[in-house]
Design brief:
Blueprint (H helix, E strand, L loop, with lengths): L7 H20 L1 H6 L4 E6 L13 H8 L1 E8 L6 H10 L3 H4 L5 E4 L4 E4 L8 H4 L5 H7 L4 E4 L15 E2 L8 H13 L6 E6 L3 H7 L6 H21 L7 E5 L5 E2 L5 E3 L9 E5 L3 E6 L4 H9 L5 E5 L18 E5 L4 E3 L9 E2 L13 E4 L7 E7 L3 H9 L27 H49 L1
Parallel strand pairs: 1-7, 1-8, 2-18, 5-6, 5-7, 10-15
Antiparallel strand pairs: 2-17, 3-4, 8-17, 9-16, 11-12, 12-14, 13-14
Helix pairs in contact: 1-13, 8-10
Bound molecules: zinc ion.
């Protein structure tokens, strides 16, 4: 039997295994890429946390069964649309991000900001903070925004990579279609934001306890179902982390629960900057004490603060856009000049301690636990959570990642990002080069040894041949 040639056969086996491993790696390359962190943040304006129990909402419940449901999210004061949408993308209280109300006056700039008239594009009002899309893009990623408040404003010189100028008449389906395009384009976004105006508008008109809200909530459930089916069609549903939430809830108003400022103080002495139920009052020059004294004990269901008296727990004091006097109505009460002002059956903006002001919160996707519930979280915690999902560095904020990390699935590689991918590719290519080097070296060494032995044999044989 011939002696086995050492070196060659084991080396072939090693190379064979290596090629097989490389082939498997390349085969799974697309799915590895699909694990790049991606997130979609969805807000249904004014969707109160308990609307899902009022009527059949199979799509919300499907999302709950496949993800995490946080039962009580404490949003920020004032519980209005713009302050809370900016909190979700900055992790800051209103006093820190500077969007302190839907209607604002900045005494330093001597400029106003109004959601009512959509006069919201003055960058200076937004630039006390830097929203997540600015950071996301600085870190080399792309963002797509479908009507999210503030995403059609240039903030610190930046718009989202793709965005839709705000237009209420653009349908939900069109907004979803744009997002799907952005997530699946050749240069895809890693982060999408989707905003829808309902059920807030109808909640104001009807009041949250009105049975007619049933069909409105059912319609939102159908819209969520549509979003999920489109994500599934685009093969995004299993690889994207979706957060479905809202900015605030809604409470029932009544024409029996109205506080009329005209009954207590002369309208010539002050200006109302932001309206019921948390009324921002700017007294005329030198009239602060007079207006405050007139209102302080005026009505048992209205709490009136001088700015410096606003409780610390509301985090609503340290900003020049917070006016010198704040009058806050109790739940279900309204503050108006007088009853001729007009009236709606639902409102929000009240103390953020009230459950009626709290939004829905669901999180579904590969990063999250399945069929899990969490009792409470703060809306400020969403920002560090999103930064974790996107594998980007959060800016200083009022939230806590530790407070919400228990909603994450433990074993899933949440942040298999571009850096990780580059490392894996590097290791494979590096090992390949080392294997080639070893192959060439060993082959060269064996050949040299063989030649040397052959020469020695030849030299040793020569005298015999000469004989
Ligand atoms: Zn809202």
């Amino acid at each position: 039997m011939l002696p086995q040639k050492r070196g060659r056969i084991p080396f072939r086996i090693v190379m064979n295994c290596y090629w097989k491993i490389l082939a498997v790696f390349l085969l799974f390359l697309p799915s590895a890429l699909s694990l790049q962190p991606r997130a979609l943040l969805v807000s249904f304006d004014g969707f109160r946390w308990d609307y899902i129990y009022k009527v059949s909402t199979p799509n919300f419940h499907y999302a709950m069964e496949n993800g995490v449901h946080v039962k009580q999210v404490t949003n920020v004061f004032i519980t209005k649309t713009y302050p809370n949408h900016y909190t979700m993308v900055t992790g800051l209280y209103a006093e820190s991000h500077g969007i302190v109300a839907n209607e604002m006056y900045d005494p330093i700039l001597n400029e106003t900001f109004s959601l009512n008239t959509m006069d919201i594009h003055n960058s200076k009002f937004w630039e006390e903070a830097s929203p997540i899309w600015v950071t996301n893009q600085k870190e080399g990623h792309k963002t797509g925004a479908a009507m999210w408040p503030g995403t059609d404003v240039k903030i610190h010189g930046v718009f989202p990579t793709y965005y839709m100028p705000y237009n209420e008449s653009v349908s939900f389906e069109d907004r979803v279609a744009r997002l799907i395009d952005w997530f699946t384009s050749e240069e895809p976004i890693n982060f999408g934001l989707l905003y829808w105006e309902q059920p807030d508008e109808m909640g104001h008109i009807l009041g949250p306890e009105n049975p007619l809200m049933g069909p409105i909530i059912s319609d939102i459930d159908k819209k969520l179902g549509y979003l999920m089916s489109e994500l599934k069609k685009a093969k995004l549903w299993d690889v994207i982390n979706v957060i479905i939430t809202s900015d605030h809830g809604m409470s029932q108003s009544s024409s029996e629960r109205v506080i009329e400022l005209d009954q207590y103080v002369n309208r010539e002495l002050y200006e109302v900057i932001d309206h019921s139920p948390a009324v921002a009052i700017l007294p005329k020059e030198g009239k602060l004490d007079e207006v405050y004294e007139a209102l302080a004990s005026a009505h048992p269901n209205m709490t009136v603060y001088k700015k410096e008296q606003i409780p610390d727990r509301l985090h609503y004091k340290h900003n020049s856009k917070i006016q010198p006097i704040l009058a806050v109505a109790d739940k279900g009460w309204e503050i108006v000049y007088n009853k001729s002002d007009g009236f709606q059956f639902g409102n929000h903006g009240y103390d953020n301690i009230l459950p009626e002001m709290h939004p829905i919160f669901l999180a579904v996707g590969p990063a999250f636990r399945k069929n899990a519930t969490k009792e409470v979280m703060n809306a400020t915690d969403l920002y560090p959570l999103l930064c974790h999902l996107l594998d980007i560095n959060p800016l200083p904020n009022n939230g806590s990642f530790n407070a919400v990390k228990d909603i994450l699935a433990e074993e899933v590689p949440v942040a298999f990002g571009a850096d990780t991918y580059a490392t894996v590719v590097g290791v494979f290519l590096g090992s390949f080069l080392v294997m080639v080097f070893i192959a060439v070296f060993v082959k060269h060494f064996i050949l040299t040894q063989a030649n040397t032995m052959q020469m020695q044999h030849t030299e040793a044989a020569q005298p015999l041949l000469q004989d």
